[in-house]
């Protein structure tokens, strides 16, 4: 569970954090069972040396395709602007290259950067490589990557196939690193090694920490703050600029230099602690860059807390208070109006846990009822045990309980039963494949896929509120569709009240 | 390239694919992608025995990031998956697969389930056949295909899945031949962005001359009911340069069915008329019926073309004249034929990226050399996007901006060449495709609209 940069691969989330992907109940019960003790991080906290507490998990015999760590690594590594990613794998692991490239192009355009393709190369392993090994093809691909693109770093993502045949990826990358004089970073992210794809964030962050971050910082940059973001518009530069701070955006759309200088920053933070947990904790522990101890920047409560913690850590309390006041004055009247316009609505949130906790906060601040939510997984604790960063706890303390909080790694077959329990007016979600399932039920959906920054900060309240008003108009499309849709599920399953009935039957 | 007399040229490249080399910019997926061939049959749902990310990678790429086609009833997150973990790698995944199939029968409604496997199962050596046979013995409609990603691309996987359904479907096949019934083996579902519309148009024109068509995939198919009549067909029609040939040969051996191989998918009146006459003759249809249909279709087609010609003639000098076509063998051949024979483009470069098996390459080269009675051109087989673009940079496109028929991977090079791009193959990220077609009579007109809208929309 510990952070150990001496070894090549990081443990999976379920090993390190006790992460689960199947659970159903009240949010407060989940918080009680989690490692973040509601009375402070005590004996049950895994990080302080004890055993990671295990939450009882439901295991279903029926499962639908989820996602793997390697997908996350692809999305991160090929979005580093002057790096190249190599998939050491059969061609199928590169299937999403075009999609990843399309989102990279959109991401660049959103930040006014020149549009280009994301570069990745498959070692294209076949039958005979499974017998004789693929390391020579890997060596060849690394050299091709260098000759063709002269990147500042090369990332190697391993695959299920190379993990099983036991290719010695480390030796090849080490030799190539010495030969080429740039970081050649092996990222161990075999899909079968973790039941949740968020382990992929940790895998690439581990590689970056070991091979790229400057061990000996050249200078301390007192106004630089590492901001762990996903692709999306830049809502931070202006915000932090008003506080006299600069943002070092990582990992999406960063440069290798941006990654190197992480150890020189004055602090690190993120809008979503789920994906940022490992990098933030390791930078604090191994490089002395403190993490901001605060809630995530969603809604008035979260954003106030986040900014104040930054102000305190970087000695900018006065600027922060002035900024908060200006923003409350700017946003306040519009949010008041939105509360009237949105009165009586019920929302349902489906996404990764940290993000979901933040979005639920926004909806509740807008006066929208939230009785149910799906988080794709749950981390009972993050890599650093600061209770200030307990996103579920903050949500409960600030906005109260959620009756039906389901932990479900996708599994769209459960959505019908889950939604029936709470009858929402709209759904707000991330990870689009699920949207196409949900919209067959006649409910309008708000995807937050393209721009992860959309709900962040004070402006995020307005953005989400306006988006809900817009999506209500789209009910017509969904209702029309639902009236002409047959679902592939058996009537007996659709009539089932308990989305976790199958799992409970097995457990009984 | 240019207009040259019809004669054989020396080989320009060895007949070897670059399969062995690395691939930048994937233009196909792995064998497991053939889960979508199963899902393309109405009423069929794939059950996937593979790692946790495999389904979403194959699905999201082929079905979503490729014209945003969508997967319909069995699409999106429906497909069951074992999401194989460490446990299945170490102890084998047979039991987990058995458990998943049992649970699937409780949850999902399908006429047929097709079990497909990924790298993990095929590498650890799960006996998937024995698991599935147990269910077959219980009369569960289920078949299996081993499609581990390292075995080849989704074209190869498609063959494996097709063969699995034909051979394992069970029941007593009725062999009594239905005259006029034809099994159509053509485009690869989902890989080809326009497969639904194209198959519908091919079916329409074949029915127009009096045939009954087992289209087998897509919304115009009747699903398993159709598959069960495969043995009764008078013949198999392989309408593609190579995909489907092995299936036709298999059916020839299994049921003694003859097959007709037409490598060029017809686009436009000229090619479609020739195609229908060839099929009609092979099927023994009355020539008068065939001619009557062709005449009626041509009347409509050429009425439209005549109107379009006002624009074509007036704006011709501002239009690109040289074209490059990059993609799967089927579309590269069909489009080049149409562009040269009916729109009068000069073929500047043709690149096939589907890793066409070596034994079919010479025949395809010959087809390009005889692209028209007075035009001959060459074709390259390349799968690595970097090499594709290097070759495009070396191509002589003459004095005007070229037009490229390719994929989203050609967006950057098109800008570099100051040309025009029509996205026609996987991956298509900048087009939304629902029922649009590029083939036959109606598809050709739509394609013409697309080509010239691309060009004219840039002006002003």
Descriptive report:
Chain B: It is an enzyme of class 1 (oxidoreductase). Chain B: Residues 32-455 form the Nitrogenase/oxidoreductase component domain. Chain B: Its EC number is 1.18.6.1. The complex is a heterodimer of chains A (508) and B (460). With 508 residues, chain A is of the alpha/beta class. Helices cover 44% and strands 13% of the residues of chain A. Chain A has helices spanning 13-16, 27-33, 69-77, 97-110, 127-132, 135-149, 160-165, 169-180, 199-211, 236-241, 256-260, 273-287, 299-313, 317-341, 353-365, 391-399, 415-422, 433-438, 457-473, 475-482, 491-494, 501-507, and strands at residues 22-25, 83-87, 120-122, 153-157, 184-187, 221-229, 246-251, 265-270, 346-351, 369-375, 404-408, 426-429, 445-447. Chain A has a six-stranded mixed sheet with strand order 1-11-10-9-12-13, with helices on both faces. Chain A has a four-stranded parallel sheet with strand order 3-2-4-5, sandwiched between helices. Chain A has a three-stranded parallel sheet with strand order 7-6-8. Residues 38-50 of chain A have low confidence and may be disordered. Chain B has 460 residues and is α/β, with parallel strands linked by helices. Chain B folds into three domains: 31-169, Rossmann fold (3-Layer(aba) Sandwich), CATH 3.40.50; 181-283, Rossmann fold (3-Layer(aba) Sandwich), CATH 3.40.50.1980; 319-429, Nitrogenase molybdenum iron protein domain (Rossmann fold, 3-Layer(aba) Sandwich). A five-stranded parallel sheet of chain B has the order 11-10-9-12-13. In chain B, strands 6-5-7-8 form a four-stranded parallel sheet, with helices on both faces. In chain B, strands 2-3-4 form a three-stranded parallel sheet, sandwiched between helices. Chain B starts with 22 loop residues before the first strand and ends with a helix. In chain B, 57% of the residues are buried. Residues 1-19 of chain B have low confidence and may be disordered. Chains A and B meet through helix 3, helix 4, strand 3, helix 5 and helix 6 of A and strand 1, helix 2, helix 3, helix 4 and helix 5 of B.
């Amino acid at each position: 569970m510990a952070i150990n940069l001496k070894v090549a691969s990081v443990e999976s989330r379920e090993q390190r954090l006790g992460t689960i992907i199947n659970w159903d109940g009240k949010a407060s019960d989940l918080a009680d069972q989690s490692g973040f003790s509601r009375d402070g991080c005590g004996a049950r906290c895994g990080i302080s040396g004890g055993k990671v507490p295990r939450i009882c998990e439901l295991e279903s015999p029926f499962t639908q395709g989820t996602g793997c760590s390697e997908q996350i690594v692809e999305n991160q590594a090929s979005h580093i602007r002057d790096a190249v990613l190599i998939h050491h794998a059969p061609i199928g692991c590169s299937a999403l290259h075009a999609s990843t490239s399309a989102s990279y192009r959109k991401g660049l355009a959103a930040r006014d950067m020149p549009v280009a393709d994301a570069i990745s190369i498959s070692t294209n392993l076949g039958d005979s490589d499974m017998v004789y090994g693929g390391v020579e093809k890997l060596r060849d691909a690394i050299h091709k990557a260098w000759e063709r693109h002269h990147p500042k770093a090369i990332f190697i993502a391993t695959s299920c196939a190379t993990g099983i045949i036991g290719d010695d990826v480390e030796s090849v990358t080490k030799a190539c690193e010495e030969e080429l004089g740039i970081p050649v970073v092996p990222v161990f992210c075999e899909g079968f090694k973790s039941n949740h794809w968020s382990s992929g964030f940790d895998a690439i962050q581990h590689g970056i920490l070991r091979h790229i971050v400057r061990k000996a910082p050249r200078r301390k940059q007192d106004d630089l703050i590492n901001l762990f973001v996903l692709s999306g518009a830049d809502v931070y530069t202006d915000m932090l600029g008003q506080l006299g701070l600069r943002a070092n955006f990582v990992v999406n759309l960063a440069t290798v230099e941006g990654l190197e200088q992480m150890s020189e920053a004055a602090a690190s933070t993120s809008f979503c602690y789920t994906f940022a947990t490992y990098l933030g904790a390791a930078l604090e522990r191994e490089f002395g860059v403190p993490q901001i101890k605060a809630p995530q920047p969603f809604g008035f409560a979260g954003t106030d807390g986040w900014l104040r913690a930054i102000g305190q850590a970087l000695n900018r309390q006065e600027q922060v208070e002035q900024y908060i006041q200006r923003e409350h004055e700017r946003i306040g009247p519009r949010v008041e109006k939105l509360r009237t316009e949105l009165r009586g609505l019920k929302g349902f949130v489906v996404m990764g846990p940290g993000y979901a906790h933040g979005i639920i906060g926004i909806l509740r601040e807008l006066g929208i009822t939230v009785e149910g939510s799906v988080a794709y997984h749950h981390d009972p604790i993050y890599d650093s045990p600061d209770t200030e960063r307990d996103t579920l706890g903050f949500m409960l303390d600030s906005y109260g309980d959620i009756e039906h909080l389901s932990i479900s790694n996708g599994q769209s077959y459960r959505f019908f039963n889950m939604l029936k329990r709470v009858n929402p007016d709209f759904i707000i979600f991330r990870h689009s494949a699920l949207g196409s399932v949900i919209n067959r039920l006649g409910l309008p959906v708000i995807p937050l896929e393209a721009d992860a920054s959309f709900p962040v900060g004070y402006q995020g309240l307005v953005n989400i509120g306006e988006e809900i008003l817009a999506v209500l108009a789209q009910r017509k499309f969904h209702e029309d569709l639902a009236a002409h849709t047959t679902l592939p599920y058996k009537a007996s399953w659709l009539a089932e009240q308990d989305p976790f009935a199958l799992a409970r039957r097995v457990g009984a | 390239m240019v207009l040259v007399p019809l004669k054989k040229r020396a080989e320009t490249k060895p007949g070897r694919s670059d399969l062995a080399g690395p691939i930048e910019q994937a233009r196909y997926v792995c064998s497991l992608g053939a889960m979508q061939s199963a899902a393309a049959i109405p009423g069929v749902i794939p059950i996937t025995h593979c790692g946790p990310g495999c389904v979403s990678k194959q699905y999201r790429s082929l079905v979503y990031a490729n014209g945003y086609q969508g997967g319909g009833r069995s699409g999106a997150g429906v497909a069951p998956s074992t999401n194989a973990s460490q446990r299945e790698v170490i102890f084998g995944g047979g039991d987990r697969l058995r458990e998943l199939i049992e649970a699937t029968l409780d949850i999902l409604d399908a006429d047929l389930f097709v079990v497909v496997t990924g790298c993990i199962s095929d590498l650890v050596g799960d006996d998937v056949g024995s698991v599935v046979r147990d269910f077959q013995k219980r009369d569960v409609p289920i078949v299996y295909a081993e499609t581990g990603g390292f075995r080849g691309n989704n074209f190869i996987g498609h063959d494996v899945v097709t063969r699995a359904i034909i051979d394992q479907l069970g029941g007593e096949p009725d062999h009594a031949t239905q005259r006029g019934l034809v099994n159509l083996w053509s485009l690869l579902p989902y890989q080809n962005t326009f497969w639904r519309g194209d198959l519908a148009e091919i079916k329409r024109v074949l029915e127009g001359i009096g045939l009954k068509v087992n289209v087998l995939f897509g919304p115009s198919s009747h699903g398993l009911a159709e598959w069960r009549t495969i043995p009764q067909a008078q013949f198999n029609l392989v309408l593609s340069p190579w995909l489907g040939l092995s299936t036709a040969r298999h059916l020839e051996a299994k049921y003694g069915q003859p097959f007709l191989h037409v490598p060029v998918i017809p686009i436009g009146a000229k090619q479609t008329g020739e195609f229908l006459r060839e099929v009609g003759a092979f099927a023994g249809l009355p020539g008068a019926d065939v001619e009557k249909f062709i005449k009626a279709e041509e009347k409509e087609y050429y009425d439209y073309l005549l109107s379009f010609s006002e624009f074509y003639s007036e704006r011709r000098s501002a239009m690109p004249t040289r074209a490059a076509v990059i993609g799967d063998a089927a579309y590269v051949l069909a489009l080049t034929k149409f562009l040269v024979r009916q729109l009068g483009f000069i073929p500047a470069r043709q690149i096939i990226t589907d890793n066409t098996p070596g034994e079919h390459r010479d025949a395809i080269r010959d087809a390009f050399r005889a692209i028209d009675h007075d035009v001959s051109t060459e074709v390259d087989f390349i799968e690595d996007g970097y090499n594709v673009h290097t070759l495009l940079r070396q191509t002589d496109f003459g004095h005007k901006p070229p037009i490229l028929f390719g994929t989203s991977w050609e967006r950057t090079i098109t800008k570099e060449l100051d040309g025009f791009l029509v996205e026609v193959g996987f991956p298509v990220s900048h087009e939304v495709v629902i029922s649009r077609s590029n083939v036959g009579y109606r598809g050709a007109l739509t394609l013409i609209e697309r080509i010239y809208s691309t060009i004219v929309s840039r002006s002003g």
